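Project outcomes to date are best conveyed with an example. Our students and postdoctoral researchers have been running inverse folding experiments weekly, and each run begins with a structure described purely in tokens. The record below, which covers 187 residues, was selected by the lab manager from last quarter's runs and is presented without edits.
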């Protein structure tokens, strides 16, 4: 069995992803300029592909930085506990910041990051997320750039994982129920 056989359906194709990412980059190109370059903070691991494709379409000068956040245990449900596993390499004091996320689900991870960043005195903070799952929101969070809204299903691919795997699938998809069940032992 190949990894592709585990996929039940494609939610967002490669072409749709790439087309929308160009549009998001254009939205950002209209806001930021070389006069006051922002730093783009990629929230790892899930946002690495989005970040790589997005930044290739940005016209303005910018720097990139990375932060590793862990909010989930094993499986598909949030534990609500957010931890910084690797912090930024540079200060964001007096800087414009764009947080680049893979998906905003309950909102707890983003809320934690926003509150943490606010205490570091940035000039501004905006948030870009590839995916948004508003039906699952438990805490209100501001999001400035949204790629796609997704239904209340566990999605993966294009950087998003299930048990650390499937990140390399080039589209956003949903696994066959049997695959989740075989790993998690859920009904
Ligand atoms: P939140 O704190 O509930 O908003 O969850 C945010 C993080 O959980 C995201 O950055 C993802 O890493 C992960 N996550 C949430 N929903 C999904 C999903 O459907 N597939 C894969 N990862 C997800």
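After processing, the design step wrote out the following sequence:
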């Amino acid at each position: 069995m190949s990894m592709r056989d585990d996929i039940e359906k494609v939610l967002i194709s490669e072409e749709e992803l790439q087309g929308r990412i160009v549009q998001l980059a254009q939205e950002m190109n209209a806001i930021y300029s070389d006069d006051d370059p922002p730093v783009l903070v990629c929230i790892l691991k899930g946002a690495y592909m989005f970040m790589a494709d997005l930044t290739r379409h940005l016209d303005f000068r910018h720097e990139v930085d990375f932060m590793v956040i862990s909010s989930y245990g094993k499986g598909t449900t949030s534990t609500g506990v957010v931890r910084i596993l690797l912090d930024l390499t540079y200060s964001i004091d007096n800087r414009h910041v764009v947080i680049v996320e893979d998906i905003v689900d309950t909102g707890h991870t983003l809320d934690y990051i926003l509150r943490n960043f606010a205490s570091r005195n940035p000039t501004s903070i905006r948030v870009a997320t590839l995916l948004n799952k508003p039906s699952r929101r438990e805490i209100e969070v501001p999001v400035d750039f949204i790629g796609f809204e997704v239904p209340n299903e566990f999605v993966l691919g294009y950087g998003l994982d299930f048990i650390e795997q499937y990140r390399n699938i080039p589209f956003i998809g949903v696994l066959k129920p049997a695959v989740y069940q075989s790993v998690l032992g859920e009904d």
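The beta strands are 7-12, 39-44, 63-72, 78-86, 96-104, 124-132, 145-149, 155-156, 172-175. Residues 46, 71-72, 78, 101-110, 154-156, 160 surround inosinic acid (CB under 6 Å). The training component of this project remains on track.
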